[in-house]
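thought: user wants a sequence for this fold. calling inverse folding tool.
action: design(structure=
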């Protein structure tokens, strides 16, 4: 696990976008795991810029999103289908057939979850998974107490998560209580992870994730065990870390 602390959110976003872009350049049919929420917005904005100004090609890229609220239709303004198309997909040359987002309106949700797992395997597995982190340490919608070996399934949302997300809805009653989420085991199968965080509100979760023990009560701590995980944060999110961390990734020079 490598921890990188940037000065600003914009620098975090550009770093993440370049990491993803590098995967796509090296492997045009890259399998990307994508996240939603406010944290990756800057990353998606930079990926769009790279596409429009530098020709980053998404035509063969395949994507799998982490999660989706149960019960929200694809055109609901707070659904993650809507989020992804508005904030990334409609601005790049991705093939809609290559886009996979959990279906919160599926009639057989357990069956859909099994199918989703099968599609990831069939595609060849995730080359890189983009992650955010909740203030309670969740990744995707794997709330505290989630099995560290879990697979795609329905989760009941923690009250803290619902409160954090209430700002996107008119009131708490509208915030869904359930979501489909990739499991922690699914996430850990990705060949590369990049976890982003910004702002003082994530400082506690980041300190526990980076420097605390691995525990299901802080699901993000599992990334400590991944062979190729990068945590990129701004100074505010890293304010409670007790060790020194670099602003740039390590460069291995072989003699």
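)
observation: tool returned 255 residues.
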């Amino acid at each position: 696990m490598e921890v990188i602390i940037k000065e600003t959110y914009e620098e975090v976003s550009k770093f993440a976008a370049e990491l993803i872009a590098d995967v796509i350049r090296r492997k045009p049919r890259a399998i990307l795991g994508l996240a939603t929420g406010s944290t990756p917005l800057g990353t998606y904005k930079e990926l769009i810029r790279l596409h429009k100004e530098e020709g980053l090609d998404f035509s063969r890229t395949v994507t799998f999103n982490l999660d989706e609220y149960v019960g929200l239709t694809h055109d609901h303004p707070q659904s993650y289908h809507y989020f992804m198309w508005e904030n990334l997909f409609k601005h790049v040359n991705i093939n809609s057939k290559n886009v996979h987002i959990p279906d919160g309106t599926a009639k057989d949700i357990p069956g859909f979850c099994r199918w989703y797992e099968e599609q990831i395997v069939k595609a060849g597995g995730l080359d890189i998974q983009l992650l955010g982190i909740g203030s309670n340490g969740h990744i995707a919608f794997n709330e505290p107490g989630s099995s560290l070996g879990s697979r795609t399934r329905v989760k009941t949302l923690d009250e803290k998560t619902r409160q954090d997300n209430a700002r996107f809805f008119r009131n708490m009653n509208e915030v869904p209580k359930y979501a489909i989420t990739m499991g922690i085991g699914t996430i850990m199968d990705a060949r590369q992870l990049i976890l982003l965080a910004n702002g003082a509100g994530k400082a506690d979760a980041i300190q526990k994730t980076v420097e605390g023990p691995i525990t299901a009560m802080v699901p993000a701590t599992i990334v400590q065990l991944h062979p190729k995980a990068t945590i990129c944060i701004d100074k505010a999110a890293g304010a409670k870390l007790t060790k020194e961390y670099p602003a740039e990734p390590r460069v291995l020079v072989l003699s």
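thought: summarizing for user.
answer: Here is the designed sequence. The domain at 2-234 is CATH 3.40.50.1360 (Rossmann fold).
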